[in-house]
């Protein structure tokens, strides 16, 4: 199961500084989430998961969506706290309902695999869809969600099997450079699933995926070229 940290929207977070600590201690929810992330990753401070959870909790309890998502991730992974899927789902849900793409994707995964909630593939697809349609600031999370949603349509998990819809989402993800989507899209072109069979297009997408190190794409590309 894939899981994302929820901080993908901030490629260059604010670095550690006395000013950041001062704002966090004064109750700034965003500063608290940022400070927690620095402790989580050991950026500018000694890595300390418990300290990260402390600041994530302060942020999350103020209703800050990113803080809630990050706290949910800690409970899901058991970093700084005892692993607790139900608590993870609680915070993911709060964040997801505010539109956080990372939390939406992770919540979908919890429903898909029955982690902290009863397994419900339709509910999983609902949250994957929201993450797949999330805003530009969550581009990398969105690409993973689009691929996952495409796979649900391809395999018929939580939705009626629909190869054309699968290709639609694979394409959106592949065009953003996600290697697994590129490989699956290539396979659709190779086999004529959801699109007209097109070996040139298959080679194109297998190549893009292979260039990122995808071993499955490399093997498929070799087999296709040897025909």
Helices, strands, pairings?
Elements: H1 18-25, H2 29-41, H3 49-60, H4 65-77, H5 85-96, H6 101-113, H7 121-132, H8 139-155, H9 163-174, H10 179-191, H11 199-210, H12 215-225
Helix pairs in contact: 1-2, 2-3, 3-4, 4-5, 5-6, 6-7, 7-8, 8-9, 9-10, 10-11, 10-12, 11-12
How would you explain this protein's 3D organization?
It is a single chain. By secondary structure, this protein is mainly alpha-helical. The chain has a domain at 1-123: Serine Threonine Protein Phosphatase 5, Tetratricopeptide repeat (Alpha Horseshoe), CATH 1.25.40. The protein has twelve helices and no strands. The longest helix is centred in the middle third of the chain and has 17 residues, at 139-155. The protein starts with 17 loop residues before the first helix and ends with a helix. Residues 7-11 have low confidence and may be disordered.
Number of strands: 0
Provide the CATH topology of one domain. Serine Threonine Protein Phosphatase 5, Tetratricopeptide repeat
The number of helices is 12
Mean pLDDT over all positions = 93
């Amino acid at each position: 199961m894939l899981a994302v940290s929820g901080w993908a929207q901030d490629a260059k977070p604010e670095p550690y500084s006395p000013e950041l600590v001062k704002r966090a201690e004064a109750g700034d929810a965003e500063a608290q989430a940022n400070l927690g992330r620095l402790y989580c990753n050991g950026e500018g401070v000694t890595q300390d998961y418990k300290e990260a959870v402390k600041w994530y909790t302060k942020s999350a309890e103020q209703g800050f969506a990113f803080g809630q998502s990050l706290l949910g991730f800690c409970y899901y992974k058991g970093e700084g706290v005892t692993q607790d899927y139900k608590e993870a789902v609680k915070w993911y849900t709060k964040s997801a309902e505010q539109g956080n793409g990372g939390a939406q994707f992770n919540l979908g995964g919890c429903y898909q695999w029955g982690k902290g909630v009863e397994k419900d593939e339709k509910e999983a697809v609902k949250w994957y869809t929201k993450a797949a349609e999330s805003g530009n600031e969550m581009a990398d999370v969105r690409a993973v969600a689009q691929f996952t949603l495409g796979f649900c349509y391809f395999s018929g998990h939580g939705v009626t099997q629909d190869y054309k819809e699968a290709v639609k989402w694979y394409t959106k993800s592949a065009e953003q450079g996600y290697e697994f989507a590129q490989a699956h899209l290539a396979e659709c072109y190779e086999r004529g699933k959801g699109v007209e069979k097109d070996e040139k297009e298959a080679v194109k997408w297998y190549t893009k995926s292979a260039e990122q190190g995808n071993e499955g794409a490399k093997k498929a590309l070799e087999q296709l070229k040897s025909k």
